[in-house]
Design goal:
By secondary structure, the chain is an alpha+beta fold. It is built from nine helices and five strands. The protein is globular and about 50 Å long.
Length: 204
């Protein structure tokens, strides 16, 4: 089941800010949520707990359910590369993930909503499936009828853009579109997770 509660709590449980909005809240309360949060020590977490936490962080960062993540893991282990890197690449090239990475949405939750509500196109055709796997060479954009909405006006001004554009994306913020230039390499994907611990979790 996908988590639908306060998103900042996830960052505090993970030990790292998972969204832009969470940064200032995490700095103010860098300990786990709950009555005993201040007394909880992440250093005392065992090997299994550390692997479980990394797996959960990956889930929360990309806003996928446990079943979805398991399915991506099954796909990753069948690919020729390193399983952890393949897993992260599969998650990164989801349509919702790239909408966020390109700066067309302020968070992964907003990106998912934009896709679900039919505001996003792939190669000119509406796609409303957040898990859609974008292939190199495909162009993603905002539908013309949606471009005048406030969130997309802000996106066109670069409000949600990262300081540095991902090298595997060709982004035109003014035009509200981007192209996946190639498959992203692991070192180019900014995600606060040690995927090797996720591999160890699923390989146990």
């Amino acid at each position: 089941m996908r988590y639908t509660g306060p998103k900042v709590r996830l960052s505090r449980r993970a030990g790292v800010p998972l969204t832009r909005k969470a940064v200032k809240y995490f700095e103010a309360r860098p300990y786990p949520p709950g009555e005993h949060g201040r007394k909880t020590s992440r250093r005392n977490t065992g090997d299994y707990g550390m692997r479980l936490l990394e797996k959960q962080k990956l889930r929360w960062y990309y806003d996928v359910s446990e079943r979805q993540l398991r399915r991506y893991w099954d796909l990753a282990v069948r690919r020729p590369g390193r399983s952890g890197e393949e897993l992260v690449a599969l998650l990164e090239t989801r349509l919702a993930s790239l909408v966020l990475r390109a700066g067309l949405a302020p968070s992964i939750y907003a990106a998912r909503q934009y896709v679900n509500h039919g505001h996003i196109t792939v190669d000119g055709r509406k796609v409303d499936i957040p898990s859609y796997q974008v292939k190199p060479g495909q162009s993603v954009g905002v539908r013309d009828r949606s471009a005048g909405r406030q969130p997309f006006v802000a996106a066109a001004e670069g409000t949600y853009a990262d300081d540095r554009t991902a090298p595997y994306l060709g982004v035109d913020h003014r035009g509200l579109n981007f192209t996946l230039l190639r498959r992203p390499a692991r070192e180019e994907i900014v995600v606060p997770v040690d995927e090797q611990l996720v591999v160890e979790y699923y390989s146990r």
